[in-house]
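>> Question from a student workshop board

For tomorrow's exercise we were told to take the sequence and the ligand below, predict the bound structure, and bring the output to class. My setup keeps failing. Could a helper post the expected result so I can at least see what it should look like? The ligand is zinc ion.
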Amino acid sequence: MKKAIIMTDLEGISLVDTADMMTGDGYDYACRRLEADLNAAIAGCFDAGVDAVWYVDGHGGGKNIYPANIDPRAFQIIDFNDPGIFDDCIAYLETGLHAKAGTLNAFLDHTQSSATVHDYCINGVACGEFAQGAAYCGAYGVPFVMVSGDRAACGEAAALVPGIACAIVKEARGRNKAVCVDAREAEKRIREAACDGVERASQIGLWTIDCPAEIRFHFHHTWYCDNMVGTLPGWRRTDGRTVVKTIEKVVTYRDLNLC
Ligand SMILES: [Zn+2]
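>> Workshop helper replied:
Here is what the output should look like for this input. Compare the format with yours to find the bug.
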């Protein structure tokens, strides 16, 4: 039994090219493109010979994907924090990745929340959501083998995991605008990259973090910390805008996040 897991996000999806598509009239179209990119990645995984593909509706609180629109061979993961998802998993992928907060010329760069998070660090090094995913699957011996997204997101991934397969589907023009490849080309790139990454999974290195590890969130505003302190066990405030926790090891995805 060989399984692949595909995380999804919305910002790095093909043909999503303006910020207002995250919330406004373009949101429904963006979600349908998310399904198309995901289906391309699922096809690529099966091309590479896996027996099963599980996927995560990862943007916001989920509910971006209509499961009926997804390749029926794939299953949706409901509890991403259950480490049992990694049983028999040989490869982890993500479609729709965006770059970490503060990246130059990166479409909708952010880490967890554009509204609140200025910076996120693991052991003192600024990281993005790619690193969070890589640290989680890496803790279970699973390599992060493929991403799709804009050029900046793919560059961030390749800098942490040399050899990762990348499907670049757009280039940012500043933060809130992107120039995209067309739908067919995007799906072709995603399918081919997914197949390539899964086929080379055993040669792609794990990305793991040294533990105990320090997880730090630096927020835009002090009031956000004011509201948070005391509500989340394990976190300590180190200055007006910063909270820190120490983890002994990565057990769930939650360990790398606020909650
Ligand atoms: Zn997102």
